[in-house]
From TrEMBL:
UniProt enzyme class: transferase
Residues at which ATP binds: 72
Catalysed reactions listed for this entry: L-seryl-[protein] + ATP = O-phospho-L-seryl-[protein] + ADP + H(+); L-threonyl-[protein] + ATP = O-phospho-L-threonyl-[protein] + ADP + H(+)
SMART domains per record: S_TKc (SM00220)
Name the UniProt record assigns to this protein: non-specific serine/threonine protein kinase
Molecular function (Gene Ontology), one example: protein serine/threonine kinase activity
GO cellular component: Golgi membrane; nucleus
Pfam families attached to this UniProt entry: Pkinase
Domain Protein kinase stretches: 43-303
Region (Disordered): 356-375
Amino acid sequence: MNGPSNERLVLSRQNRVFERTESPPPTSLFDPSKSQSFFNQCFTNLGLLGRGSFGEVYKVLSLQDGQYYAIKRSVQRFRGDRDRQRSVREARNHERLCPHPHILGFKAAWEERGHLYIQTELCCTSLLMHTEAQPHNPVESVAWAYLCDLLSALHHLHSRGFVHLDIKPANVFLTRSGCLKLGDFGLMLELTREWREGPDGKEREEREEGQEGDPRYMAPELLRGEYSPAADVFSLGVSILELACSIEVPKGGDGWQQLRQGNLPSEFTNALSNELQSVLRMMLCPDPSERAMVPELLALPVVRRQRWKRQISLLLTESLLFLFSFCQTIFSIGRGLFSFFHIPFISGRKSAVPCTPSKDSWDNDGDCSTPPPSFSYTDTGSLGEDLVFIPDVLGPEYSPTFSHRMKSLAFECDTSTPRPKSADQWNRGPV
């Protein structure tokens, strides 16, 4: 069966697989006659990265190219053709967004036994987990770095007629260089010309169904069914406010209402510069027609200045990481050559003499020889539920700004970890 030009369909029994033509699976790996799924034949499952209400994300090793990736699998099987089309649209829209330095890289996608699989690049951790693991409050330069990266991502997305509708720290991911990448496009909509004009009809009803994001970051007009790029700007503003002030934004109540009336919590924002406060007010304007759009924000002199600093910082960091990786490779090659020719003065470290543990330690210690659980495929269960892969928690040396990485080293010996200000404290007032 021949599919569209950007897909390759492979039918086998109840499996239907589609991939980009740039990276078709080798015939030596995927054998349709085998009972094993495409996932189990082509990847080694290294464990669960995270689970949500709509999907599970796994860290995998590709047997095709030997690279690590993340694969998102829908939790529920398709409830019909309409549900399937909606899920497949997420993968197709994600592919159309790439490539971009601040958009999570799309590799491939396929449908198998009623589930959708999306293969993307593997990042170190999410922005939410990274900020929660930091031992001290972020400096303002870090908040500017977050803002610059995500404004660039939104500009790329909006310029192609899409709105994300679920901007929040949990859907932003970090690379080793500290570069932020926007991901999770399950709620993304393509705003066609007819949609922007707001006609009544079947198309609108289909798009409105199930389009609800996290209420903590949701723009007020979304409650009225008004979808536009302005909603993403509001959600990004709430995210930056949360990260810059180290607060927990409320899910409801008076604090939630005040924020959507344009009233920023002054007891927390007073520590920010006037420039950042001004930008946040522009992003959190209650009226979407008066809210600053991404091109307007990118044209601000302060944002242009911060973007230039950010680009220099990323360039330096990525250059240092490349140099370090290159030196490691040269050292490994050199050590292998010396070992091959048995040069005596370059000898490896002598292995320690094995020490037999006492019988008491046998009784007290658990059995560490148990092999990892099998990752056999089941239609109703998860893939490898028992083994959970813990993502790398980036330390201060992986902070988004180069200067902040240097300053953060001074905090390594500080064991005090201030807790973020909760939504209850926000509602009560200053602590």
